[in-house]
Task: structure prediction
Amino acid sequence: MKTFTFSSALLILSALAAAAPPGPPDAENAAAEPAASPSAPKAPSQAQDQTPAGQLAYAAIEEPLGAEGIQILADRSVLVLSASKKTHAILYARWPALEALSARADDLAALVKAYEKARAGQPIDGDPAALRRVEEMKEVGPVTAAVRASAALLAAHIESLAAPAGAPPSDAGQKPLPAFAWGREFWNKVHADLLADFQPVAGLFFEEFFMAQRKNAQAEAHFLSFEKDAERLERDRGARKASRQTLDSIASYLAEQKRLWNLSLTKERLEKLEKASDLRKDLKDLSVLAPRMASGPDLLRALRFSFDSKTPEPAVRFSGADLHIHPTAGAEPFDVGDEAVVSLAYWIDGASAKDAFEITEAAFLDEGEGEPGISEVKISLARRAAGGPHVVKLPLPLRSSGRKTHHFLLSTAEGALARREISFEVSPELDQTRSAAAQAEAAAQACRLAESEQAFSELESKLQSSADKPQFKAVLAWLKPRVKRASEQAAQLKTVMELLDGVRLHASKEQCDFKSEKARRALALLDGLPPGCDRLSASSERLRPLRAEIENLLRLSESRRANQDAFRAAAEKGRRQEAACRYDEAAEAYSCALALLDSDKEARCGAWEDEFTAIHLQNLPRARAAKALSDEFAAVAEKAEQLASGDPKDYAGALQLLNPLIARIDSLDSRACYQSMRSKAEKLAGSAGIGLSPSLPASVMRESLPKDDVNEAVKAVSAERNRLERSETERIERESKRQEPSIRSIQEALPDEQVPGGRP
Result:
């Protein structure tokens, strides 16, 4: 057999060299019923004349492709081979598939090479244009959808290796942003894998990670490893608003992170594609075919020449009626999903009734020029006696719509060949129904929910009147709950948009209650809606996506509510410290309370603004004044002690300081806070009085005593006390006329009259 194959191939190639190029044969008839072509060369030898065309065709391509390559083409429904074990013959060739594989052999070899590097963890290189051409191929033979997807993935990887113009410099030591938990959360929130322009989400990124209340040190460090201008970022943070330059930098940074992330995922995505398909087997077959089809002789020309060669007259022939096709159940027209039955009766003529022959019975469905090629291939080897009838019945599932041709081939090892075929139409109605359902689903996923609801309802009404086959009933069974869900989703989105105004109001100073219930409810409703609703613009004036807008308002509401609560707690702490005569700590607490509301002017609203003003103008100054008074008393007592213990001792000078000090303390409402100071002053005054010598004349004693009139000091202190009382009374009257706080009452605060220490 090897000798025959080699000699036949040599004869064919020598004839090709001497002959003019043959005209293109009829693609449908060339293999099954070969006829002599006017342009084909005459047979160069008697040996070739005696060889059937199918066997010559096999021999013509066996040397360059090998038996393995031919079998791959047969397994991939590009060739139909004889089932005989005695001889090898090609009964049918799918020319469009062969031409496509031959034309793209170099590109397919490049794909195999890039894929092997990716699997080995080596740097992926190559010509992305070649991979893109593979991506654009129709699905023929081993070029499956998975192969085209892998070509697109590897082409994108090679194209992404070079950073685009204007992109920030990549830090090779940094992981891409989505590799971090905080980055992945943001990535999923904005659906970054689907974004081509990151400008709309740049502001959200700034607020999420760079603002003071939610500052993320890891995110800031990661951003600054790409964008080096830390000073500009700090200025924008101080201004509480990102500049246009910063927003542009963030958008560029996020685009670069997407590029790096996609590069890091290439191998992982290939592995997922392998698990979901037969990609490894497809590329293994291509690794065998592509180099041989690219570097071998003109396979297609040799194959065509073989089919056009003169063949011997077979000893027997086939006769019989045409093919018949009818549906297994129901009536025509044929629909996608139906199962048909193809039947045939044939006779073997030209032989004795005692003779028997091995007959190859090959059947296949031709899907047309625009489809992958032949399918539903069934080849069997049967031993049939001369005569007949020999009846064949074959089930035929119909998997796609359009015009189909079913072929039935009969052949013997001696070269007898016959073909029967029947053409029929498969209705596109089911495909159109599924397409309409897919379009409605696409509208739903894009959050065009009213449009989706209408499309689903119309499709349901149409199917209810015409669904009499199982495949249509299955679509209708899926549609019924989907129509209900579409209606629910449209109502949910309407509710979300209605809640949005309330969410905005509760986050603003106009309402001044900063509740979060509506925002949380809106987010819960959004969780039940398609992803497209997350990306829906909240309004025409705002570019922020809907989910990001609601989450931002929720964050503002909770932050302002927390600031108000912290303000109230600090204010109450200040009052307690003041009542406990710890004026320094009271002043610090009041200052902290003011700083909390001063950090967000929106939280200073309604009764909170009034309380802020009261603490700013009264409580804090009073605490500071009390602290200053306490410091003043301590300084006077210390000075008096120095005079009484000095050299010489000035008892009269000490008494001149201590007597007014004692009188001032006694005149204060908060004198209980200064009892330790008064006791010390009184004790020191007593010591100073004893220290004055009683032997001195009265005139000298009078000259030594303080000249200050204590009564006058008491009157001055009393006058100041009365002034402060009037001021406080007027403040209380003003406060009582104002509306009480709408959220939390401020009545819990103790009036100043009940403060144990009183006022200074």
User: Anything to note?
Assistant: The CA atoms of residues 32 and 91 lie 6 Å apart.
